[in-house]
Design brief:
mainly beta; two-stranded antiparallel ribbon; 9% helix; 20 strands; single chain
Length: 361
């Protein structure tokens, strides 16, 4: 998070660049505003307001090509409460074999979801909305593409990652006091092709990194975790698979992710189907999340599950403005050794309705 002086300095620097006659920049961005209402409980992202309008996100993104191979880019994002952060700041060096590119700085990993639009799957919300800092090399030799990186990730934080009373174990975008000392290596392999049968884009990825002392301290001090359960683990991993198939107006996509932070394991997946009719896009999606039994809700360890069915309609009001309406049908199960408690299935409603305006330029 930037302090006011740093924010002013960053904005002044951008204005200076824009005024330079020798610098031709590609400028784009977005503005997301929504109305959200939920009958009870909380959403996937903690702190979400209900029964009111809110400014979800504004982003200004700048890129510039120095040569046919070398580029730089930067993004400044403002979220809820007006907090401003530099979410991207990278330089690319191209010309490597197989259309390879070396990137240094702050960037998003593959399958990035930098914009908080409705309809994002659980895997995208938890693992693809945050940038990382480090170096990566990407290669593209059609139909294959490959990327490998060595990066720092953020400390675990409950800010923006709590689902009900069970942390979702993501490493969110820049938050106050967050460190960037989690060494992580990752690799993604993708394949895409198309023809009369439609088009398919599929990928698989794996990340492995350290689990530092601040993460262990977080686990062992917050309510809900078994004290000391994380101290004997020093590693973390994430592996995931995704596929996106389109045939004419029909589209089917899916994501699967399995993560472990210390001894806390979590599995999430999504399947979404869509049909496009003119400027309208109709969507139906199913998400599932479950953790292992290393969460203590009362006096015994417990597992926790969440299911979500979404029904959505997107309307392209203008090439740069999309209106989205989504209804969420949420179900939660909390199971302990001695008892099982079902939320929403036994009369505790937790469904939600979202109307969102997404404007881009």
């Amino acid at each position: 998070m930037l302090r006011p002086f740093k924010t002013t300095f960053a904005l002044a620097a951008i204005l200076t660049i824009l005024a330079s006659p020798t610098m031709a920049l590609d400028i784009n961005g977005n503005l997301i505003v929504e109305y959200r209402n939920r009958e009870g409980g909380t959403g996937l992202i903690a702190g979400t307001q209900h029964d009111q309008f809110r400014l979800v996100q504004t982003t200004l993104r700048l890129t510039h090509d120095f040569t046919d191979y070398n580029r730089f880019g930067a993004s400044i994002t403002s979220g809820q409460g007006g907090a401003v952060a530099v979410t991207e700041g990278w330089a690319e060096l191209g010309g490597l074999p197989y259309n390879g590119v070396l990137t240094l700085g702050r960037f998003y990993k593959p399958l990035a979801a930098p914009y908080q639009t409705v309809g994002l799957s659980y895997p995208a919300l938890l693992f693809h909305t945050n940038p990382v800092l480090g170096a990566k090399v990407g290669m593209d030799f059609y139909p294959w593409r490959w990327e490998v990186g060595l990066v720092n990730n953020y400390d675990l934080s409950l800010t923006g990652t709590t689902i009900s009373n069970s942390p979702a174990m993501a490493r969110p975008i820049v938050v106050a006091g967050a460190g960037e000392h989690i060494k992580e290596v990752y690799s993604y392999l993708g394949w895409r092709d198309g023809g009369s049968w439609g088009s398919l884009d599929a990928s698989a990825g794996f990340s492995y990194g350290s689990f530092n002392i601040r993460d262990r301290a977080l686990f062992n001090t917050i309510a809900g975790f078994v004290p000391g359960s994380q101290n004997d683990r020093s590693d973390r991993y994430l592996y995931e698979f995704s596929a996106d198939y389109t045939y004419g107006p029909y589209r089917v996509s899916g994501d699967y992710a399995r993560s472990r932070e210390g001894r806390f394991a979590m599995t999430v997946y999504n399947v979404t189907g869509g049909y496009r009719w003119g400027k309208y896009n109709f969507l139906v999606g199913y998400d599932h999340l479950t953790n292992n039994a290393n969460v203590r809700l009362t006096s015994t360890p417990a597992t926790w599950e969440r299911d979500r069915v979404t029904y959505g309609i997107n309307y392209e009001w203008h090439p740069n403005v999309t209106l989205a309406l989504e209804y969420e049908d949420n179900r939660e199960d909390i199971t302990t050794v001695s008892a099982e408690r079902r939320q929403a299935k036994d009369g505790i409603e937790n469904d939600g309705l979202v109307f969102q305006i997404n404007a881009s330029f």
